[in-house]
Amino acid sequence: MKLYSYYRSSAAYRVRIALNLKGLPYEYVPVNLLLGEQKSDAYLTHNPQGLVPALELEQGELLAQSVAILEWLEETCPPPALLPSDPLQRARVRSLVNSITCDIHPLNNISILNYLRAELGAGDDDIQRWYCQWVERGFSAIERSLALTMGDCCFGDQPTLADVCLIPQVYNAYRFKVPMENYPNIRQVNQHCNSLAAFERAAPEAQPDA
Ligand SMILES: N[C@@H](CCC(=O)N[C@@H](CS)C(=O)NCC(=O)O)C(=O)O
Questions:
Q1: What range defines the domain where residue 126 resides?
Q2: 172 lines ligand 1 (CB under 6 A)
Q3: Which of 31, 41, 105, 107 has the most CB atoms lying inside 10 A of its own CB?
Q4: Which of 80, 106, 137 is the last residue of a domain?
Q5: 47 CB near ligand 1 (under 6 Å)
Q6: Other C-beta atoms within 10 Å of 44: how many?
Q7: Domain boundary among 22, 53, 80
Q8: In this predicted structure, what is the pLDDT of residue 67?
Q9: Ligand 1, closest atom to CA 12?
Q10: Is 0.90 topped by the overall pTM?
């Protein structure tokens, strides 16, 4: 498989973690977001939205949208399972996944921040307030729910799709200097997951385009 990725893309980071957890080898194809390569005609044939990640399967089929890719990997690829077998627990893991991928990440994506700056006249302080606001709302809720479900990871001691999505979001929060003191549960899960080889190898700094 080929993963079209950018080292600092948290959506691509999710897929890198899942591929590593499942022990699936892949070719890393860097797409330089700063140079706008994601909007080139060549790349739009891989992902018409002009976003990373895109996953090219062995037979040449292309998949876009990180959560769809994660679900596909879960349905078709080898263990470890990244969703629990119990339907109620699966729904809870997906709920945490959605709180990150639907309610935090899209509001703080670089294209949104660029729009606020260029089209609506937001300055650096406005952008920082905007960014922190959505992370804090999301992380406060996740912090409370982890108190009921966490072990070493978000749900018990084994990584699930919740960890696969949370850890890149925490990376972004540190990068954008969001205060993290109020989230001890999140910090604990983050520290544990980052000690696992699959997460370490997926980290932005470990990518060839870093
Ligand atoms: N919902 C999408 C989000 C993908 C996304 O927003 N990717 C960002 C990087 S994290 C991107 O490619 N941005 C480039 C741009 O907006 O031009 C997914 O989960 O795959």
A1: 87-198
A2: no
A3: 31
A4: 80
A5: no
A6: 12
A7: 80
A8: 98
A9: 10
A10: yes
